[in-house]
Design goal:
Length: 934
Amino acid sequence: MTDYVEDFASGLNVLAPRAWLDDDSGRLPLSGDWSFRLSPTVADAPDDLKDPDTSGWDTIAVPGHWQLSGYGAPAYTNVVYPFPLEPPYVPTDNPTGDYVRTVTVPADWDGARIVLRFEGVDSRFAVYVNGSAVGWSSGSRLPSEFDITELVAPGKDVQIAVRVHQWSVGSYVEDQDMWWLSGIFREVNLLALRPDAPTDVFVKAAWDHIDGAGTLLVESDVPGIVSVPELQLELPTGEHTRIEGVQPWSAEVPRLYDAVLRTAGGDVRLRIGFRTVAIVDGIFTVNGNRVLFNGVNRHEFHPDRGRTLTEQDMLDDVLIMKRAGINAVRTSHYPPHPHFLSLCDEYGLYVIDECDLESHGFGYEPQPPKLPNPVMDPRFRDDLVDRMRRTVHRDKNHPSIVIWSLGNECGMGSNLKDMYDAVKELDPSRPVHYERDTEAEFVDIYSRMYTSPEGCAEIGADTSLYRNLPFILCEYGHAMGNGPGGLLDYREVFEKYPRCQGGFIWEFIDHGLRTTIDGREVYAYGGDFGETIHDGNFVCDGLLFPDRTPSPGMHEYIKVIEPLRIVADGNRVAITNRYEVLDTSHLQFTLKVEEEGELVAGGGLPVPVIAPGETVSVELPPGVEKQRERSESWLTVTAELKEATSWADAGHRIAWGQIRLDEPALRPAPPEDGASAQAVGVPVADGVAGVGGIAVGGLRDVRLDVWRAPIDNDAIPGVAAAWREQGLHRVQHRVVSQGERDGAWEVVTRTAPPALQWGLRSTWRWTAVDNGVVLELSVVPEGLFPEVLPRLGITFELPKVERVEWFGTGPDEAYVDTRAAAAVGKYSATVAELQTPYVRPQENGHRIDTRWAQLDGLRIEALNELFGLTVRDWTTHDLEKASHTPDLIPGDTTHVTLDIAQTGVGTAACGPALPDRDKLKTAPATLTLRFTTA
């Protein structure tokens, strides 16, 4: 019984798909220790599962992946397959794991139909019970059930043996961007289905936004009575009923009604959400309201357990999303564990439920002599349709699911249309999504990935395009490494064009697997386990780090999607409610006024209740107005939860806005020749300019800096390679002249790469002041200089610094296109706390628009231009050559960079190129700073 490994069918003797139910069926969980044996190939796996002797076998935990239990190794690819493309054949090197467990069938199960249920097994498996071959199945992220009634006896022991293959023909359609991990990774249960008990139920609950009435129809394979106590409702199955005064379900107000289906054979507990999904005049609506998807793509992932998640892991994900203001999740690229969907119902998240299908490695619509993509290949048709049917049947009762998705990145083919038709036959109430239907031939939602904001605006503005379907970005804002940048540009488009209904950030969490390399604990990515074919750290592209702590990108997204807009309105504050259905009665508003970063006033701010979509203008308290006459002052208005919810404590911040109260002094634009005004003072007397740079006033090795450790958005699209061609990574510094001139010690340097004909001529004018020095720096490009620089600033060294205090943007890093979440204030952190631990080390920790900084005893002040602050315990070279964060080992020297400017971060690792607006164009520049010591 091995031919099934390369069989195009989806299974043998598998029961028909049905809904995931909370019912009275007897349930014997089989999670725990199983006997385990791994064979290197199918041929090497002994043909002994009819009577296995497990005395010499190992023990493995179920659910789990064998690669994370010490057998074999994980492997990561994004697009390419790690085996030759020749369906249905798979490699002879096909690790095969055998699992065996013996349990006792409960004695009170006599008379029941006994079913063995697997929630998820990767990739294909065969089942033996008491020595008899039962059947086999595939579809790794889908359930499979087998009727074993005739093979077991209540009150007696039953031996269950499962043979799992790493590779099968199913692997050709499971090419999702994730680790290849094998085994029984979701729960296994032995079920007792009583006679006359329902096994499949379909709840059809809708809500009419015109008259506020609900309708309910419950279909069941066994007739019964549906009781909804809160509505004082009892109705038979199969009967369509109208109910007055029902409260609807939405992501913002996830109202559920507990119900029970009672039958002669047992009860089924239901959670009913009344809601209607409709597309009206090109707009996707829920309960008559336009939905703006502030979503994320979510793989199931844990750094130690891979795709084996606990219920607590799932709850953690939902709570993180809700607290962040995320209102939607796309289950990329397979149906999640059903418990996660129940949590989405309960806490309120819109879901795009995606079929377990991706075949990216074949290419989109390949032409002969290339092999057809499986969605074009009739041999795969029945399995793909079956996968879609299984998805819909299992998950159809979740009100949180508002869209079905056929799969991901498979190109186009007739099998997809057949999948679409299968969905519509089973459930016409929900629209169907598929991104690669690029001309909107049959889908109900038009979707793209990584389209630029300008491209989105073109679609939004022209309703004649793509059948005027609602438009979403099923993936955008690729959150790999330092980024994503430019999210505000998307928000503006989504809010301007009703048809543009938001999108889903790629993705929720970095898939770094916790392991040890060279004695140090790291989060591993592609190649760290010795794979010959892999896609590196492309698996680490989430808003969360692998341990589920938020990245700066998550904080930026939270700010961009917050449900209130708080902005200046003359001498008042304008507050706009961007909620879908909620008014602001659940919120309280506070304000604080800070002068030069110090709190000078605070308290509550009376705000009338604001209806969805409405704006109010609020008068500021009289004391706040007086701050307009003082030094740099900022008003911060915050909206917080009045009371605790199921997902956050009272006081949880929902939105905030900052308004500058004083009139900022105009900063002079740099002259075209780069000259700067001369400071009043006397020349420094102890300065030295040499090979290492300039030493002055306690600063060591001061020199111009133009390079940053490439971020993923620099490296992957080739931007960093172009910078290297221009020599920016290896510039040399020449002292042109030094000496006293016009009341200052003036040093002229030229920073230029070898072999090329361009450079940056810098004039450094140093003057002595009380307890320190003032630097006036002017930089002028010469020759055939590059159009764009990674950064432009100065760098120098200090003895080990412990703590940094600064007045500027914070608390997290901020760049020119990731500064929405950066609030102006006074902050303090250790040097270690200033670092962002990206899984693959890269440029990080920059705080844009710093006014002043205190590094232990050294104070740095901006006298004209604000500066970007970066403080590290290693060099840029150290950062660039490190493969993992633990490779960076602090030394006795602290390295400081003060930037005039830096190029933005963008999302070009997988997305549009950085817009010109966010590029640092090479041009004359100036910087004036004061350095003093206590």
